[in-house]
Amino acid sequence: MNERLANIKQAILDGIEKHAESRAAAFELRKQFLDSKTGEIGQLMKEMRNIAPEERANFGKSVNELKEWAQKCFSELDEKLKEKELQMRYESERIDVTMPAEKVQTGNLHPITQMRNQIIDVFAGMGFEVFENKEIENDYYNFTALNTPKDHPARDMQDTFYLSPEFLLATQTSAAQIHTMESKKPPIKILSPGKVFRSDDDATHSPMFHQMEGLVVDKKITLCDLKGMLDMFVQKIYGDGTTTRLRPSYFPFTEPSVEVDVSCFECGGKGCKLCKGTGWIEILGAGIVNKKVLENCGIDSEEYSGLAFGIGLERATMLKYGINNIKLLFESDLRVLKQINDN
Amino acid sequence: MLVPLSWLKEYVDITVSPQELEKKLFSCGFEVEELVEVGKDITKVVVGLVEECEGIPETHLHVCKVNAGEYGTFQVCCGADNVCAGGKFPLALVGASVYATAKDHKTVEGVMTIKKGKLRGYDSEGMLCSGVELGVSENMYPGAGYNGLLVLPEDAPVGADVKPILGLDDYIYDVSITANRPDCQSILGLAREVAAVLGVELKEPSYEYTVTEVVKDGFQVKVDAPDLCPRYIGHYVYDVKIGESPLWMKRRLALIGQDSISNIVDITNYVMLEMGQPMHAFDCDYIEGNAINVRRAAEGEKIVTLDSQEYTLNPTNLVICDGVKPVALAGVMGGLNSEIRETTTEVLFESAKFARDNIRKTSRAHGKRTDASAKYEKGVDEYATVYAMKRALHLIEELGCGKVSATHVDVNTGNSIEPKEMKVSLKKVNDVLGIEVPEADVLRIMKNLNFDPSINGDELTIQVPAYREDMDSYPDVAEEVIRMYGYEHVIPTFMPDALVTMGGLNRKQQKDLKLKKALCTTGAYECIHYSFISPADLDLLRFPEDALERKAIRILNPINEDLSIMRTTLAASMLNAVARNQKKGNLEGRLYEMGNVFIPKELPLNDYPDERQRLSVGIFGDKETFYTLKGIAEKIAEALFVKFDYAETKKTFLHPYQTAVISCEGIEIGYMGKVAYEVAEQLDLRTAAYYLEIDLKLLADLYDRRATFEPLPKFPEESRDLALVMDKNITCGQVESVIAKSCAYIKEIKLFDVYEGGQIPKDKKSMAFSVKFVPGEEAFEGEAVDKFVKKILKNLKFHLDIDLRS
Predict the structure, then answer these.
(1) Inter-chain residue contact A107 with B498, CB threshold 8 Å
(2) Does residue A302 sit at the B interface (CB-CB below 8 Å)?
(3) Is the pLDDT of residue B78 over 80?
(4) Is the pTM of this model over 0.95?
(5) Residues A64 and A28 in one domain
(6) What is the tens place of the pLDDT at every residue in A86-137?
(7) Is the Cβ–Cβ distance between B109 and B101 less than 8 Å?
(8) Residue A97, domain member (yes or no)
(9) CATH number of domain containing B307
(10) What is the predicted ipTM?
(11) Boundaries of domain holding B34
(12) Which of B355, B503, B524 sits opposite A123 (nearest CB)?
């Protein structure tokens, strides 16, 4: 009898050794020995009655031991095969991680919109509202109210597109200053982005471009406030160490007027190709609002003063992203639009 | 404006370096666009004395022994015909750099370095130079134009650098002058600023002359248009001897690129450059009627100007006439009829102020821009008008080319050229700046600027020179103070006294941005296109003659026809952008633009037009269909919390059977469709393109919609799939509409299959919909949903003769 038990044990070991390559095969093998009805070990139990009663207890114990041993063998085998199959599955799913990605296709805001949003974010935090400009203006708002009467040489500084003797394409976003001051009492803090137009078309000029005007009117606004505000602005846009330099300039609607240079954000002011070795980059025009402009809008220039600035968005965008040709901004070439994703 | 350093030094003692002066000018508001070193390319050229000179047989060459003082004596071979023993010539030493010339010895071809050489077997150490080789013209130095060696003065020290002798040690500043400072459009004007910024005295040029007793009998000046000519000064000069100008004058004119013509003409040009006041000289022999009359031109009146061009004038042009005819186009150019000739013996000098916008208009209208008109356009002050005449008369005397008569006519409108007193509060000046500039500095700065200041308590009194027409009130004083005091004194502050304001985007601006971002999530890239388009674009879009889109605003002075009308649709810009992309090999993509169209109330424009914000989307590529574009449209609706409806329509440039009108809450807001094949062909499109345009102004009223939360259903939803058989021409929209109206619990109707053929009759199609029912306050009971379906089927049969597919 013990011999039979030993044979079964051997058969199980052989079976595991030779045939159990897959979990399915192992399951079949297990069934062969351990199926409650047909399994060989089960059969042994049925033969109990043929065993001499005094040996039954021993026999039963031996069969049970065999059964437990077999169960343990098969469950270990199953674990092992499970592990092996998982491994094979993984291996069969090996991929080439260097193959191209499946792109998640989202678009971008236009580079100028991105720049515009960045600037608005900074000034919104300082309390500026946004007031969008008209593209078509009349002579009064574009020139006269901005202290540029008909015979003024400053009209020569900008070649204007006329639509009729009275109406024209805005040459600057400054007209928004007048519209705002006519409709709002101080304190005023506005930004006015807009499209502007000048009769210029060459490698560095586009007949349409974008400006962002800023205006503050309140009590005791000074040139120092202009400097302080712009310093903060350039630090937010170009980085912490950045600073500004004011130098005299002229705009009819501000007095004093300044050009504002920013310390070169490429070289930190040491001098490089971007700043043409000067350490400074011209970024905007600004000044203290000309008191005649305040008076044209019915604001008491004795009580209030203001500051104004105008940023060319194309220039700011091109500097920030290193875009080398202004025309690229208006050609809608996807190869360009896809690159600037500071959304 | 070009300013030679040597000329500036005539009026200011400049001790700082040329580069330091550039920085000083920059700091006080005069940007130097370029600083040109005149003799930059010339080095190591010294005065050489030819001690021996012998011809080399059978050549035109000479071999010379040239003494170069401290540098030694060199053997030099020379081909010039004027080389001779005892002469002093520029010697370029070995290692020197000079200009290389072409075979003609006149055309400069670059810069060369002198090396030791051998000519016809003779060693040559250095080169004797011509004027061209040193970049010196006849006007810079007499004899420099000769095609041979430049002859140096006999007293030139042997071995000395030739640059100071030839005027090559000079610098020229190209200064940009802002529009508020027309008084600096001259060497003297800029010299005043240089003196102020360096804190040194200005040395005024001489305005002295002797008036003789001679008078021009009966000579009269009349100004009929004082509005256009507030001041006209004429002075008669006789015994004129036309000849050459002296070297110093020629050289200064040459440095600025002005040819020397004759002493009288040179004086007018010299004074204009020096004082900023254009001047003119008439030959009195050709002035008829012994009179000058300044008046508006008659309609059709003609004048031939000095450059032999004829112009037909009108009353907007101002002319200077003698007793009979126009003799000059005021402020622009003199007339040929009265020009200075070699035979001229009597001259009438003119110094006048003309209205700047009138000169600009005349100059523009006739396409004639001269140095004089440029000065007048920017503005000439009467101070200069008066002093320029004095200066010109002084130069007549200094050059000895005529005698100053007692006939001086000054027709004016009473403007004073004396300084005007101006009082400002120092506190106000400091309040503009935000800093307190020490009184001593204010006084120093104002004094340097020639304002003769005094301070009494808070009151600053200054005497504003007549040429400072820009000085009006305390902000102008503040600017003068700070530009000289230095902008580095402006310290950053942040509006310590200002009130707090609320910043940020308003609702509409937030929605615009949200919409743009929503479009980006569909894979579309934002574009910005010009607001002007070509009339040909409207033809491309096949708009009929009477289409509203054709009623576009024209630009009166466009850059060209392609950029000449304000757009009435965004379609042309977008389709052209699609075409450009395809040409560059981008065969698929999605683009959008948010921009204005311009709808005039009437033409020509005499009121603001309607600037309507619109949104356009252009998609192209083999994967795109009408329905991918519709997906983008739905995204737009979703972003605005609205629902769009679509119905078939026609659009001239879109596919006749793949175009829809888009409505929102009963209002037509736009359209979308496939680009018509004719248009695609004209644009050379290689893949299909689809276009959508929505008028955002029409949607703006709905911009206040917000996201709202709808509680999740308390009871389970149920869905039913319905496969329906119907006539081929029934649309999905029709079916959906009937289903939707059949039951209040329907939340979603989704088409999931369309099928034709097979067991479906020939003229029919099958459409399968999934309908989702959502219970309200109570769960659906037993057969409730089946009852809804029955009702739906009944309605479909009744309205559209639709059956359930068996």
Answers:
(1) no
(2) no
(3) yes
(4) no
(5) yes
(6) 999 999 999 999 999 988 889 999 999 999 999 999 999 999 999 999 999 9
(7) yes
(8) no
(9) 3.50.40.10
(10) 0.87
(11) 2-38+171-198
(12) B503
